[in-house]
């Protein structure tokens, strides 16, 4: 690393490995997600080849199951969202007039965790792939029915992926709420930025549920707990946890596409978007309601008929905000001057496909119709119309739309139009016949029914047309990147701020920050004075800004170490006792990665990294809250869901267990009561530490924190002795669903206490060296927020396990 | 119609299909018309007065009236569909007094049927024109018991018994299919439903020996396609 973090040229490898600049990270996301698209698309072509004719034997059952599982996982998780977030990374800071995201290094960390999670998924694909579908239903996902290491590695990959998503959400929320150009009100943000803001909020609340579910699956498979193997939890518990995440996930992959369409429409119709505020309101309402409709994925599991009716109602109601959005898009075309360029064709084509996806989705929202359509090709056709038609097709339009901004050059228009025509025809030929085949079960390797043969054959032809057409996209972009006509700064004559800077933008985005005036006019910065399409030779910060850091080696190092630690522990738990030597190797990998990870985190924390905080930025409604504090609070919100799902799983299992042990028999009240007292006291000492820190009383802070540390250790000691006693009585992890929920829920809490202890040790070290005092009291305060949260969780756990 | 359940499904599905196709044609047709009508034809198409430009965030436009009209229209259509759904689901959920109870167990990979006289079979046999109540559960993983032509299904879960009912209208052979992915043999987790004339069924049923197992012997866990 060069001393002052100067940014090396794009030809340099260290630029791409160590960059923290949002535009570079965006390009990394773009390339990686496109790689996953083509990989997973190839799997889809294998699937369609197998299904082209009845009784085909091109793929074995095993190969087919692995292919559709990996296809689904990659497309939903490793392609769609990261593809959308390549634009979010590149475009959102430009659209709000910011110089970067709030936490540039965390952003790079998100990318590298995403990449390494993808690598772990690919590793799993080659050592024994997951083959239970992307929904990984229970109890097929348990060790008893799927004893392959591939599923463990897939779960590991999901954990890394979810961590990446979570920290990325925190980053975008903080950026969008705190770093807008002076004067830019929330309602003045471009549609794409709006959609990303709503998307990351959904991510923040949906993914922790998935993380909790995957964690339960992991401990079931490795430690022998019984969340999904015992009927008390089992199939239905997984269904609830998975679909509570799964339905919002559909909107998570869809919303950025809607936002991009909302930005493309004004540029190509030459009129402002119709009903902009109703579209935004519609997105917000749909996002909220998306957390109340998961039951429609479980209509035929046989749960209470009244609940099924309520879910029918919420599901059908959630189509109303989308109705508003689509009507507003269509109304935007009236008395416009529509320029049917490639991005416009993809955007408008995507709306058409989304309409078909939406209408066919209403069928599935009906509990009565779902009693036949559940698990059939109608479902397959519907969600491909929504996620590929509404999602991916619009995002491909977005790629054409922003390609000139990213590369400084235009793509070839005629090739683009050909690409659209083939894609649109191929898409409908691929998916529409599946509606006609609505009797056919999904996820079958073959079929004997001649009645289904013709439509399957059409679908396969369509798949090859649609799939091969995408090669035109690659060809067009690759050749245009070098030889396309120079684009100029604003080729579409658009009004959003990403077009107010050069193409590509300079490292620091704008010569000076744009300002939005109260009458809606924007004071634009003058364009940087280098030739269009080039990059400045040598880095110089704009006037008045501190020297901004651009490179850090820690994101990639931390991600790689997280990969190896997880890889080691997952593989270790899978080694049969016979191959002891292999076990030792994995143990070493785990410990080495863990120890090096500790050093890397320390290095990350101590690295001098400047991400300037400009006081004049628009920060409503969180004007007086610091960037870091905002980030911590946002993160805590996701932790609430994480523990909420563990507690929900406990209640679910408890409701399904006929005989629960009486109070004070297994879980002794006195153990719980003492620990409750200890933790409450430690919350008090943590508050004292903040007070002393503000007063710059070094001794006071050190003493309060040391007392907190002592109480935390005492808590864990009590916990350990209690566990030991219970184990001694045969109340082990795999004894019953009761013991499983107890150890894992209180264990997850204990792990948070342990995390607090590590943080405390580091902070106390700093305080003794004279840091974190007076103006620098933030760190002590952030720890306090975290610590109070850990205590509050215990306040819930104590009565749940000990008193009720 | 081959059963009361396929009658219920097709009746409701046709309602949805009719309204769905109608809405799609109107909306997609309108959209295509607008795209052609207002496409940029050079000088022939005037530049809109409110064309967005860099340096100014456009004023919001759009009337709440348009939103209200489209919301009202969709709500009416959806209310219609909701009414149909609630009627149909009550019929699906509430079996009348049954004349024949069959217990079905899903396992990796096949179905077992058990009759009131403890007779077991891997093929399901029922009389036509009589209420058949099916109690569904699973010995192992998540399956879904569906009768393809009858257009009815319910999940087979371990630790839980689900119920469906039907009245078959025509004698003949139908397909029983697993509709939830359940592992390697999922595709081939199929069997037949045989619907007999009532007297024929009585004849067949009375000759069964309790506890007997007919047809192919049930293999659990082993068979791999």
The rounded Rg of chain A comes to 27 Å
Largest sheet of chain B: 5 strands, mixed
The unreliable regions of chain B are 218-225
Cα distance, first to last residue of chain B?
34 Å
Strand elements of chain B, count: 10
Which two chains form the greatest contact, residue counts included?
A: A-B, 94 and 85 residues
Shape category of chain A: globular
Provide the CATH superfamily of the largest domain in chain A. Cytochrome c oxidase-like, subunit I domain
Helical amount of chain B: 25-40%
CATH superfamily of the largest domain in chain B: Cupredoxins -  blue copper proteins
**How many H/I helices of chain A?**
22
Q: What is the topology, as strand order, of the major beta sheet of chain B?
A: 3-2-1-5-8
| DSSP, total strands of chain A | 2
Number of domains of chain A: 2
Tally of distinct domains of chain B:
2
Strand percentage of chain B = 25-35%
Q: How do the SSEs of chain A run, as a string of H and E? A: HHHHHHHHHHHHHHHEEHHHHHHH
Say what oligomer this is: heterodimer
User: How much strand content do the residues of chain A show?
Assistant: under 5%
- Secondary structural class of chain B: alpha+beta
Structural class of chain A: mainly alpha
């Amino acid at each position: 690393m060069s001393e002052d973090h100067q940014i090396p040229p794009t030809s340099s490898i260290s630029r791409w490995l160590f960059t923290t600049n949002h535009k570079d990270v965006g390009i990394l996301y773009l390339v990686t997600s496109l790689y996953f698209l083509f990989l997973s698309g190839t799997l889809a072509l294998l699937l369609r080849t197998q299904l082209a004719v009845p009784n085909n034997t091109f793929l074995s059952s095993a190969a087919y199951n692995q292919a559709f599982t990996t296809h689904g996982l990659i497309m939903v998780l490793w392609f769609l969202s990261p593809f959308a977030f390549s634009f979010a990374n590149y475009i959102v800071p430009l659209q709000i007039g910011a110089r970067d995201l709030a936490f540039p290094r965390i952003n790079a960390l998100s990318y590298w965790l995403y990449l390494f999670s993808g690598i772990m998924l690919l590793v799993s694909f080659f050592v024994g792939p997951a083959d239970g579908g992307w929904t990984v239903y229970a109890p097929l996902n348990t060790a008893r029915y799927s004893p392959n290491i591939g599923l463990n590695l897939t779960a590991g990959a999901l954990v890394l992926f979810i961590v990446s998503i979570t920290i990325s959400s925190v980053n975008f929320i903080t950026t969008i709420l705190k770093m807008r150009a002076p004067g830019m009100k929330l309602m003045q943000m471009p549609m794409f930025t709006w959609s990303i803001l709503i998307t990351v909020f959904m991510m923040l609340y949906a993914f922790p549920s998935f993380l909790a579910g995957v964690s339960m699956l992991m401990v079931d498979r490795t430690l022998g707990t019984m969340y999904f193997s015992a009927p008390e939890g089992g199939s239905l518990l997984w269904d609830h946890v998975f679909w509570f995440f799964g339905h919002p996930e559909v909107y998570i992959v869809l919303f950025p596409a809607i936002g991009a369409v909302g930005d493309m429409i004004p540029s190509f119709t030459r009129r402002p978007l119709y009903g902009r505020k109703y579209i935004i309101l519609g997105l917000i309402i749909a996002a909220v309601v998306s957390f109340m409709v998961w039951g429609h994925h479980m209509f035929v599991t046989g749960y209470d008929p009244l609940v099924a009716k309520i879910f029918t109602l919420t599901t059908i109601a959630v189509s109303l905000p989308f109705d508003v959005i689509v009507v507003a898009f269509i109304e935007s075309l009236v008395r416009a001057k529509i320029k049917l360029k490639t991005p416009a064709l993809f955007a408008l084509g995507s709306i058409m496909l989304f309409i078909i996806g939406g209408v066919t989705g209403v069928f599935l929202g009906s509990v009565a119709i779902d009693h036949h359509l559940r698990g059939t090709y109608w479902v397959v056709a519907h969600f491909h119309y929504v996620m590929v038609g509404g999602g991916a097709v619009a995002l491909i339009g977005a790629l054409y739309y922003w390609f000139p901004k990213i590369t400084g050059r235009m793509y070839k228009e005629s090739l683009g139009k050909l690409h659209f025509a083939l894609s649109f025809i191929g898409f409908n030929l691929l998916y529409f016949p599946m509606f006609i085949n609505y009797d056919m079960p999904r996820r079958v390797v073959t079929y004997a029914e001649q009645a289904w043969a013709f439509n399957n054959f059409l679908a396969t032809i369509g798949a090859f047309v649609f799939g091969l057409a995408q090669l035109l996209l690659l060809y067009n972009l690759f050749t245009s990147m070098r030889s396309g006509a120079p684009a100029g700064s604003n080729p579409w004559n658009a009004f959003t701020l990403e077009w107010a800077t050069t193409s590509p933008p300079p490292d620091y985005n704008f010569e000076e920050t744009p300002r939005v005036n109260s009458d809606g006019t924007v004071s634009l910065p003058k364009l940087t004075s280098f030739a269009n399409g080039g990059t400045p030779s040598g880095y110089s910060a704009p006037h008045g800004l501190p020297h901004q850091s651009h490179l850090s080696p820690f994101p990639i190092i931390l991600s790689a170490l997280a990969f190896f630690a997880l890889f080691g522990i997952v593989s270790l738990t899978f080694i049969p006792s016979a191959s002891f030597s292999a076990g030792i190797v994995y143990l070493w990998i785990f410990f080495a990665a863990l120890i090096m990870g500790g050093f890397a985190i320390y290095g990350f924390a101590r690295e001098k990294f400047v991400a300037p905080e400009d006081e004049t930025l628009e920060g409503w409604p969180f004007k007086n809250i610091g960037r870091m504090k905002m980030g911590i609070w946002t993160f805590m919100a996701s932790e609430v869901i994480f523990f909420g799902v563990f507690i929900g799983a406990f209640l679910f299992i408890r409701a399904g267990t006929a005989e629960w042990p009486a109070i004070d028999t297994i879980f002794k009240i006195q153990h719980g009561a003492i620990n409750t007292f200890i933790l409450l006291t430690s919350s008090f000492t943590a508050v004292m530490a903040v007070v002393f820190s503000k007063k710059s009383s070094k001794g006071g802070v050190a003493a309060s924190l040391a007392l907190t540390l002592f109480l935390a250790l005492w808590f864990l000691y009590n916990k350990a002795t209690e566990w030991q006693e219970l184990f001694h009585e045969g109340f082990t992890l795999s004894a019953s669903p009761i013991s499983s929920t107890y150890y894992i829920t209180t264990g997850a809490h204990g792990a948070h206490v342990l995390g607090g202890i590590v943080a405390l040790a580091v902070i106390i070290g700093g305080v003794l060296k004279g840091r974190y005092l007076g103006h620098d009291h933030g760190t002590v305060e952030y720890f306090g927020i975290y610590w109070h949260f850990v205590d509050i969780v215990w306040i819930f756990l104590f009565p749940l396990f000990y008193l009720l | 119609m081959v059963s009361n359940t396929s009658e219920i499904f097709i009746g409701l599905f046709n309602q949805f299909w009719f309204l769905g196709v109608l809405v799609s044609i109107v909306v997609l047709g309108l959209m295509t018309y607008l795209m052609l009508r207002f496409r940029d034809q050079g000088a022939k198409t005037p530049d809109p007065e409110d064309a967005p430009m860099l340096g100014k965030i456009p004023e919001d436009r759009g009337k709440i009236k348009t939103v209200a009209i489209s919301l009202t229209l969709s709500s009416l259509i959806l209310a219609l569909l909701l009414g149909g759904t609630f009627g149909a689901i009550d019929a699906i959920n509430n079996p009348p007094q049954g004349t024949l109870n069959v217990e079905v167990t899903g396992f990796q990979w096949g179905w077992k049927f058990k009759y009131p006289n403890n007779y077991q079979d891997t093929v399901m046999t029922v009389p036509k024109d009589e209420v058949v109540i099916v109690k569904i559960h699973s010995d192992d993983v998540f399956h879904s018991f569906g009768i393809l032509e009858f257009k009815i299904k319910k999940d087979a879960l371990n630790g839980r018994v689900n119920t469906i009912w039907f009245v078959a209208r025509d004698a003949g052979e139908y397909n029983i299919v697993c509709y939830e992915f359940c592992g390697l043999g999922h595709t081939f987790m199929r069997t037949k439903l045989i619907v007999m004339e009532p007297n024929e069924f009585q004849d067949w049923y009375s000759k069964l020996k309790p506890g007997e197992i007919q047809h192919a012997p049930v293999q659990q866990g082993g068979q791999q396609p």
